[in-house]
Amino acid sequence: MAIFSKLLTKTDIEKRLSFPTKCLRSLPCFGRGHAVDFHVMDECGQVWTFRCTIRKKNNPKPVISKDWSKFVSSKHLDVGDKITLSKLDNEVGCAFYRIEVKKPVKLFGVNVDLEISDGEALEILKVASSPGSLMDGLDGSNAILQQEQQQQSLNPKDWIVADPQNAWDLLHEERSLMTRLTTSCADLDDILGGGISCKQVTEIGGVPGIGKTQLGIQLAVNVQMPSYCGGLGGKAIYIDTEGSFMGERAQEIAEACVEDISEYKRFLHKDLQACQGEIHGKDVLQNIYFFRICSYTEQIALINYLEEFISDHKDVKIVIIDSVAFHFRQGFEDLALRTRILGEMALKLVKLAKMCSLALTELRKVFGTVLISVYFEHAYHLSHQYDVACFLNDAMYAAVVLLNQVTTRYMEGSFQLSFSLGDSWSRWCTNRIILYWNRNERYAYIDKSPYLRPAAAPYSVTARGIRNSAPHCKRSKLV
């Protein structure tokens, strides 16, 4: 256990090896002319020796050895670097210390201008920088060293983003790579432009019992469907924070999905097995990775782990969280802290979406279930060119879908549904869809979208999953 710790600059040690008085007092008393060897162990376990000749008790004069020169060279030390020496043990004539080197992070005034810490500014620049830039893959001292080496050849403008893209190319890219995931309800797909879109954030909310969890399970199943059926041909991650996932219900929806695929194949009169293999109900359930989360700390940890998990399971196309707000709506007295944690979590998801071309959608509910779904999609079109579709299946284009809760708010003289977690959270969402009851029928309404016009569509929750509205699926009246 370290009994001494002090930050020293490289200049201090090089010129006079200025250890504090507290350190010297802990050493055996030496007379004038005696020498003390300081054995310093770095983070790699290598030991470096520095010899001091005692002239005065509180003013040792070092004899800089070759080890010190090698140490400076190997660690790329520079003026202003902070060196932490922690004493481990001492014997007669020698002392052991552990050394840690921390290089100052040069953030070009970002932290000063925004009045935030170096760590927060570093995180902002990591997200703002383009893929493959100097901020990618930073971790520990190696990350700081990597940053320092690359800063020498970069200007502050290189920290911003990649080269600009003209609007025409952007429009062409959006149209060519915009793949959608079907909801299994044709009317709902119509108002959504074909289904849940990728590379965007869609927030869906509604009252309890409206069918949000059913929709989440339906999407986890539909993502495994081939492209000609409106799916993405991948697997799903289901993160359950409330314990509302039902395996038996998932099996019912999966078996119905398999039957629908078989019917569609017979309708096309084509052998599609060359590109898509046969799907069975058991396979659908095995392709859903299930996580049970019991606290907000576990939720944050899992969000941070998603990037690594998805890199190991590249066929994952959707992540569903049920629900994102459950653990954040209780036990938080500090609302500012909650907002900050939620912002960091959203930032992780946005970064994941950008890296894997994800699209975000949130399902929210009033005092009820929430799902966050992250859709990872292939860059192929819904066409009959199945060989092209299978080739583009290797491209990692993704969509993130977030499902969250809503509550009620008094506005304009009446109580209206409002998405939970406040306005700061809603800024991450591109589209907003509200699920509600109209008399005895379920409806979905597009409340906000930059490219979809406001519209409503009925839907039903049947034994086979989410389907078009049907009279026998209406809510029963209590007599």
Automatic annotation (TrEMBL):
Subcellular location: Nucleus
MF terms in GO: ATP binding; ATP-dependent DNA damage sensor activity; crossover junction DNA endonuclease activity; four-way junction DNA binding
Recorded GO CC terms: Rad51B-Rad51C-Rad51D-XRCC2 complex; Rad51C-XRCC3 complex; replication fork
Domain RecA family profile as annotated: residue spans: 177-370
InterPro entries (UniProt xref): B3_DNA-bd (IPR003340), DNA-bd_pseudobarrel_sf (IPR015300), HR_Repair_Mediator (IPR052093), P-loop_NTPase (IPR027417), Rad51_C (IPR013632), RecA_ATP-bd (IPR020588)
PROSITE patterns cross-referenced by the UniProt entry: RECA_2
Top-level taxon: Eukaryota
Keywords of this entry: ATP-binding, DNA damage, DNA repair, DNA-binding, Nucleotide-binding, Nucleus, Transcription, Transcription regulation
Pfam families with a match to the protein in the record: B3, Rad51
Database matches in SUPFAM superfamilies: DNA-binding pseudobarrel domain, P-loop containing nucleoside triphosphate hydrolases
Main subcellular location: nucleus
Biological-process GO terms, alphabetical: meiotic DNA recombinase assembly; reciprocal meiotic recombination
Protein name in the entry: DNA repair protein RAD51 homolog 3
